[in-house]
Amino acid sequence: MSSPSPIPAGKGVPDFASSAPPSSVWDRISTWASENKAVVYTIAGVAIVVTGAGVAYYLTDTKTTTVGRDAPKKSSKKEKRRKKEEEKKPADVEKGATETKPKAPTVESADELPDVDETTVGSLSEQERKEYAAKLKAAGNTAYGSKDYNKAIDLYGKAILCKPDPIFYSNRAACYNALGQWEKVIEDTTAAINLDNEYVKALNRRANAYEHLEKFSEALLDFTASCIIDGFRNEGSAQAVERLLKKVAEAKGKEILASKDKRLPSPTFVTNYLQSFRARPPPAGLELSVEIPEDIGKGQLQLGLRAMDKKTGDGYEEAAAAFDKALELGGLGEYEAFAYNMRGTFRYLRGENLEALGDLTKSVDLQPALTQSFIKRASMHLELGNKDAAADDFEKAMEQNSDDPDIYYHRAQLHFILGEFAEAAKDYQKSIDLDGKFIFSHIQLGVTQYKMGSIASSMATFRRCIKNFDKVPDVYNYYGELLLDQQKYQEAIEKFDTAVEMEKQSKPLGMNVLPLINKALALFQWKQDFAEAEKLCQKALIIDPECDIAVATMAQLLLQQGKVTEALTYFERAAELSRTEGEIVNALSYAEATRTQLEVQEKYPQLANRLQGMSGGFGGGAPSAMR
To answer: Distance between CA atoms of 131 and 164, rounded to whole angstroms?
Structure first.
């Protein structure tokens, strides 16, 4: 087989832990965060809400956006061209402030330049120092322009002796920058910033040096402060923040993964994954009605199946332990392939992907007819970014049983993730044709039609679902999501309420908390009802404390209200609960953005009011739709 093809740029890594579409709650949260970037990049203590006028923002869209009552007038073409040229030369030295002077100093020959040092500068008058500094700086600029950086460093150093000016320090830092002497750059830019703590060019130079030294957190802090001081007008600085957020988050994410205890995710997550496969009876001989001693492998297999039926966190932990024990005890005979399938499933859910792949490979080697093992292995390959291996496993499964509807359902997931919606719709329909009783094929078909822009077809599919599966809460939950996307808030909330009530009746101990979270998002989006939205998230977390989606939603709600320190705690908790490196990095990106804003507030408290003024006010109007 050819080398693995990675998931295309811009495509998310699939989440096969949900029977719902991968574009479900997490996708809407992420999209909302992208569309409402000021919530993430807002100075601590300033609660900016999207208003009719909008807000200044940046994250994945680095276009300049400065709006509000006091928005500056559009620049002329000439001005825009000048700014672009300046941004192309970030390391250029500065000529100095545009002061009213009789005449700019001329550049003199080396013999005419004043010769000063620490012993002679004290004898100069204040006026002589000022004049000497101007001459030395002008000569330094000339040397810099000729790329004679060492000479320029010497001349700027003498100018600094005469007059400790932030521009002189910054210009000398530019020379060190050209020579790659990053520690010296930091030393001189720090001196410049101490003299002028809103010196944007010095902040950017120091940030660049920090980044070269792989001090990403320090670089992130400087670039963020620079963006706020400059009113988010410098696209290069905004892009640097985005880049550094990713670097900081990736570095911390690797540390978390290395030390992370392998444990099962929330019961909501596990339940959604397990129910993405059609319910099948236990293998003949392992039925719960059959009495099997628990001290043998088969007995542990049966115990694991019984524990899974609880659909609770403790139940799933008990099941995982039982499947481990079953293989340890052995003597499984015809059930060995099934045992490897189940242990591989729970290893995958714990994030032990390589071990899970090994178990599923043993399962298909022992019993190729157990197509579910091929399907599960395909989804793991896809999560690891190897779509070719995933496609290959689907083909192998079809060779064993081309009438297995689960094959088409999960292959449709692959197409959905890759944005191949027409192919996904065909496979979902094929899955329905083979077995029309599996609700999630219908739900996913409706969502896929929606993604393709066939709104009427999608709504018709969901109405048929409600008619044919009127006692299944998931139908109402995901139909509500599509209504929410269309800003039909009242109808969406009614559907979420119906789903919640059904969950309570059918699964009181292991209810799916997603309808509660969806209702929280709807109330926030529709009425800015933070109090009720928070209550719903808290309720979800009481039911399922490990639910990463509930934690992330709570973090966004708190951040939207300016409760930055509390939001940071929830973002960090979301990272702890995440299974994969991509999920951890996503959560940590928000955490680091929030932490950086707190640090900026502490270091530059004067910037809080400035950013508040840039927002054009806050508190009114509803935010953009969380698509």
So the answer is: 13
Q: Are 308 and 286 in contact (CB under 8 A)?
A: no
Q: What number of CA atoms fall less than 13 Å from residue 384's CA on the CB side?
A: 18
Taking residues 193-217, what's their average pLDDT?
A: 95
If you write DSSP's letter for every residue of 330-343 in order, what string do you get? ---GGGHHHHHHHH
- DSSP conformation letters of 445-511: HHHHHHHTT-HHHHHHHHHHHHHHSTT-HHHHHHHHHHHHHTT-HHHHHHHHHHHHHHHHHH-TTS-
**C-alpha count within 13 angstroms, C-beta hemisphere, residue 587:** 29
Which string of DSSP letters, residue by residue, matches 263-323? ----HHHHHHHHTTS---PPPTT--TTS---TTSHHHHHHHHHHHHTT-SHHHHHHHHHHH
Alpha helices in 330-452 (DSSP H): 336-349, 353-366, 371-383, 387-400, 405-417, 421-434, 439-451
Question: What does the chain come to in residues?
Answer: 627
- pLDDT value, residue 609: 67
**Sequence-distant (≥ 6) Cβ neighbours of residue 146 within 8 angstroms:** none
pLDDT in tens, 280-325: 999 999 998 999 999 999 999 999 999 999 989 999 999 999 999 9
Q: What is the pLDDT of residues 26-81, one digit of tens each?
A: 444 444 444 433 333 332 222 222 222 222 222 223 333 332 323 334 444 544 45
Q: How far apart are alpha carbons 169 and 166 in whole angstroms?
A: 5
Distance CA 338, CA 363 (A): 7
- CA–CA separation, 538 and 385 (whole Å): 34
State how far the Cα of 451 lies from the Cα of 418, in Å rounded to an integer: 12
Lowest mean pLDDT among 19-33, 114-128, 346-360: 19-33
Tokens of 339: 């045992």
Q: What is the pTM of this model?
A: 0.69
Residue 441: which of 409, 465, 414, 407 has the closest Cα?
Answer: 409
Among residues 138, 149, 139, the alpha carbon closest in space to that of 175 is found at 149
582 CB neighbour count, 10 Å cutoff: 16
Tell me the percentage of the chain whose pLDDT exceeds 70: 79
* Closest C-alpha among 364, 368, 348, 367 to residue 356: 348
Mean pLDDT of 386-414: 95
- The CA-based angle 246-414-435, given to 5 degrees, is 145
